[in-house]
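Researcher: For the record, we're logging two predictions in this thread. I'll number them. Prediction 1 follows.
Model: Prediction 1, sequence and structure:
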Amino acid sequence: MNRLKSLLWLFLLLFTMASAAQNKSKLIRVVVFNEKNLPFENVTVQLLSAKNVLVKSGRTDKKGTVLFSEPVKGNYYFLAKVIGYENGKSIQIKSPFVLNTINIKILPSSQVLKDVVVEGKKPPIQHIQGKIVINVDAGITNTGVSVLELLEKSPGVMVDKDGAISLQGKPNVLVMIDGKPTYLSGGELTNLLAGMNSSQVNQIELMTNPSAKYDASGNGGIINIKTKKLNQDGFNGSVSIVGGWSRDYKNNNGLLLNFKKGKLNAFAAANFNIGNSFTDIYANRNYLDQNKNTTAVLEQNTAIANLMRYKFLKAGVDFYASKTTTIGFSASGTLINRDGKSDAVAMWKKPNGVLDSAISTVSNSFYKLKNGAANLNFKQLIGKNHELSVDVDLLRYNMNNNQQFTNRLILANSYTQGTDIQSPSNLKIFSAKADYTIRLGKNNTLESGFKSSSITTDNKADFISINGLIRTPDLNRSNHFKYKENINALYTSFEHKTSKFNAQIGMRFENTDYDANQLGNSAKPDSSFSRSYANLFPSGYLSYQADSLNMFTLTASRRIDRPPYQKLNPFTFIINKYTIQRGNPYILPQNSWNLELSHRYNQLLTTTVSYSVINNYFSQLFLSEGSDILIYTDGNVGKMKNLGLSASLQISPLKWWLVNGQGNFNYKQLDGYQNVNYQSSVNQFQFNLSNQFTITKTLNAELSGFYITKARNDLQELLYPTGQISGAISKSIFKGKGSLKFNARDIFFTQAMEGLTDFPQAQEYFKLTRDSRLFFLSFSYRFGKPLKLPKRSTGSANEEMKRAGS
């Protein structure tokens, strides 16, 4: 508590100093006028060096004005840009500035553009206040991969062997799609992200310390996946076809359509992906006595093959009822089918390596996920300074995961035993939220809102034991689990912006209630449990623009992770004959404090120091049952401390060569109790590098890769180093409307996942090899014709830009 008070006092002190010093720097005012010599609002104005290097950008206010702080000595000019108008350019001026005001006039385009002309490429990675933005199409090596594979190669993101995602070394990340939580976790989230293709995604936002406006879930922060949506006048569309090969063929197809005219904007998207995949697993488990001597060895080889089919359809409409009112509706559906087959051999050996016995396990799985979602949104501008937005979402997931296991002893007197599991489940979600924004003068914004969500799940698992031709219900392992959760939240935040200092402070309140019921049968009784708790989550940032190139930012937040309902369900899942997984109804929420200090030099270099403490830390637990069966479960084990250092560099050594690199160092210390007191730590380093080459105006290439040293997310499991190198080439065709791309992922087939797990009186080395080496050929094409842009007054121009989301 004393530490928290000190942090808040420091924050308030810095905020006071910021307000006192805000008027000391010299400013230059840029005023933009339209063809009628009226001030032009919402125009993007860029400050560029004489060598056309972007220094800073801003957007004009209602008076057509934007302020810039004086840059370092040198020659500069200003460029004004807005849709439907020719670019306006100022004269070249020298810093220190003699002038206090620069006027720029821009005129409508003289003719209708036949195609959308992109004047500059989006950089692959952008650092924006509070987040890192990954522009997916700007990286050629992103072509064809799944969203899960896309996250693997994103800066600061790590995906472990189970599909769990961590950000900047911190586990438990809230994954959102288009600003809305998926409400999935574990294997279900992995299946969804593995089914989605990168061709569906426009941007990925990485937020380590989100503001109070966002859900407090996710100790590691938030990953927001923004899907593609066209928003041009007239009828427009794009189509993409991707064919790939690893051991087997893969195919991804996508279609985007959009029609915008007058007050109506209608859009649709469709995707169909199909692909085979494989995973080879090797595990060597040594059983130990009290003196750490090996008493037995279990060696397991498993080959898993999957066929996944992914279908997605989304359609919606935006209606601009007036200049101040917008109503939108969208509906989407997802269907995932995954058929899997696994062949495993478990060999028991004596300490000297002599084979004792062997068991073969053949399993078949049939997984199906159906998702339907509907969204209704409303936005109302109230006067000049008030805005109300409302979102209502309905989601439903239906999942079936049916499995068949057959175990056969490989001996002369062999036996055959099996298990058949039928596990249907459904998930219903209702969510409603409202946000109200008040602009207090030019520099202050007050934002408040509420959110209420309700989640209901019904999960069944029927076990049938098979012994030869005899099938017997296994009532001890069969399960019927019902769960209902309600989360209600209120938040408020205040933001203050000046030319030198920006600051925001916010508070979020969340109340959580859940009830769970495990229904019994003739072999075991009912059981139920419930919990109710409330939390406050402060957050905020303070940034200082030292000059036109340097910015310093301090952020702080408190966050929470609630245990997923799947892990609360005390249900047993068979991994193999000697390894099972079980839920834990006694897991408590984990919470964290996060502090981050960063410095950004233009978009060239960003350095960050961060520190976080997680209490009631979630970790995998490994228990023994009998003499040979080990149980995976989850629980609270204690505390995790994470000290992080990161540096991100974007530089162009030559005109045709762009380099993006990011390095992350984390020192993690875990303290917990699991039968005995555990203490573990790791020095973890992750490095991402991307090289982009402009060969000709229509030909580009990319070489990228990442490397992760030893890492640790769980108390008892150490991950060994891994990484990959990828390369791609892109050719623009059909006068820029189309493109051909070839992508080779994990060229040297180095992205294996291996590590060492400490069990109670056992130790296991494991290695997972997947079809990470992939080769893709893709074709994409844009079609359609925009409507003619009429000459507009300032008001109509503003309206168009609001519709375009500018």
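Researcher: Logged. Prediction 2.
Model: Prediction 2, sequence and structure:
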Amino acid sequence: MTSLFRDVRIAIRQLWKSPGFVITAILMLALGIGATTAIFSIVEGVLLRPLPFPDSDRLMVLADIIQGADIQGNGEAGVTVPDIRNYVRDTQSFESLGGYAGAGLELSGAVDPAMVNATRLTGGVLPALGVQPLLGRIFTQEEDDKHQLVTVLSYGTWQSRFHGDPGILGKKILLDRKPYLVIGVMPRNFEFPLTPGRLNHSELWVPMSFEEQELTPTASADWSYSMVGRLKPGVSPSQAKTDAERSAKETVRNYPAFMAGFNMHPVVRPLREETIEDARPLVRTLFLAVAVVLLIACANLAGLLLVRAIRRRRETAVRLALGASAKTLLWQTLLESLILSVTGGFVGLILAAVALRVGVSLLPETLPRVNEIGLDWPVVGFAFGLAILTGVICGLAPAFAAMRTSVNDTLKEGGRTGSAGGHARLRSALVIAEIAVAMILLTASGLLLRSFDKMRQVDLGFQPDHTLVASYALPGKQYATQASADEFNRELLRRLQALPGVKSVGLTSFLPAAGNNQNGAFLPEGYVQPKGDSIDLATTIHVRGDYFRAMGIPLLHGRFFTEDDKADGQVVVIVNQKLAEKSWPGQDPIGKRLRLGTQSMNTPWAIVVGEVADVKESSPDAPTKQQYYGPVDQAEAMAGALATPSDINGNGGFIALRTSIPPEQMENALRATVRSIDAQLPLNQVQTMEHAISDTEAPRRFNTTLISSFAAAALILAVLGIYSVIAFSVALRVQEMAIRMALGSQRSGIIRLVVSAGAKLALIGCAIGLAGAAATSYLLRSFLFGVSAFDPLVLTLAAVFVLLLALIASLLPARRAASIDPMQALRAD
């Protein structure tokens, strides 16, 4: 141990003699290790860390797969109310199993009225998760069945909205103006569902207590619910799936009028896979990109250490001549590299902590469990392990270079600097590798930038400019009847339309970018389903007022809804272009009929009176779905199109105002108008439609920005590498340059000689980088939109840009070489 401390002191003294080199090396490594550690903390928090539930590997998601349905992904459609009841009653593979669904509730009473995200749970969900409350208890299945008004608060809600009141248990709060008894508070880190996005976290949990309309036979066509359960010990997911198959068949048999022809079967998969499925490609790509940047930083450090070893060749030769062993020189060189890398790792850890504190809020909403991301012990261990590995790898090249020093040749050279051809080739190889990986990242950045630009050019199917939107929910206690809800909605429309600056206003159960779309079954008259298809599903949307004009949705054929489309009249719908083209290809859809629901459901035929453009429901790059719209007054007749918790036919929805003035200037007027009708009713998500669209673009914008940042860092490091190699090469060849100029060579020829050396490295690096970009392009395919992974424009521009930067990096040492005085240089020799 004493000898180790002595060697460390000697290494520190040697490094202290070159402060510029030390600072440069530490900062270079700190940036590389810091960025890698920050991204690894995201990888660890999102992908690697177990779910925050006991024995989380036994937690499973249970859902229905509907083959042939128009559903994104693998056809997974959630579950229905009959599914929940049958699966819970009939399956034997789960210790506890339950269903859940999100809900927006008005919280009032002890706090100012506000809309909160809530989750409705059946009695089996919280026992399945296995987390005990911090205070109080969870509700029981009996309380769920008997419609008991009880609630469990999240820790954040207890702290922020109730100021951590220790006596909160037993108090009543108003949810949708109904008195709910607070019976529990969950622990600080408890979160369920594990929904992506910080704004979507559930603030409280209430019993599912299925409402009357959810228990009707038509509920068998609504797959907007989810299920989670805990497997019994020794039961595998495949066994649970086989068990659930029997229950699914029972559900289909019990509802022949509504599920005839369904090709449906259950899927059982880990909750963890469900949680991280969408985030995995992004996180893996980010980690790969930052690892590439770290490799470039390592290559630069190895190059700097190699240059240092060359400059210390005479010192090394003297030590060898005096009897120092090669093993001692190897250890001393590695120790210097380790001191630099560990110091860089410590500084990088500080940078990573700062980056995470600032950057977590900028992470895309598609990442789950964002609140768990941080510098925990696994991440700290990773940082220092990475620092030690980096130090060893970077120190090997200069260490072996020192060991291979020829004592006689070096001492014979005296004070002159040799060419060190082998070392020069190694440095050149490092720079070529840096250019190649920088080229790969730059190409990826260019592809993402083009893809993002293509996405921004997508026709959304509506005009988001000059549109203000908001959501609201009508409490069931004050608006218990349909007539009272209708009266509020009509009065709201009338007063909003009268506001100065409002051109048109409408209400809707669905808003683009709000993420609240619902699948509803339908059957077009005369449509023959292709073999293998089971049912057609479309997004069901109820509207009131002048919604289509408020959103700027163009009418392609037919008409919009009018006041004549009343509850006792002919049921009418407006369909989007995709539904019309699929149901009646090559025909005019106006006058065609749809049965809203499945083939055997006793629902009336609806007449298509209009066709509108396809509206993007979420991100502009997401696939377009089939959609149909119905007037609110006819919602009861549209029995196949089930109402969601935010449906304006029931207890709320979304407001859309098209204005002639900047829409943000209408926010206060909108809030005041709502308060003039109901002083306690809060509005939620009041924003311009352009801002809402911008939020849906955030994940792709984040990907593009981060990859572009890594590409810029890699490019800067690669250019510095070219500069250092060329500058050091020029320093070694000062006498050669002087002789060339003494023999008549022009200064322009010297510049060309030096620049051509840098250009040669850049050309080789670009060629390898283009091949590497082609080989790794498959990693980007899931992130690209409207752009080929082998886009020739991006590849060409990336190569040209790298070459130009390489030439610029070579120009400064070239000019320095051309400006030397031949006589002074030769005398110095």
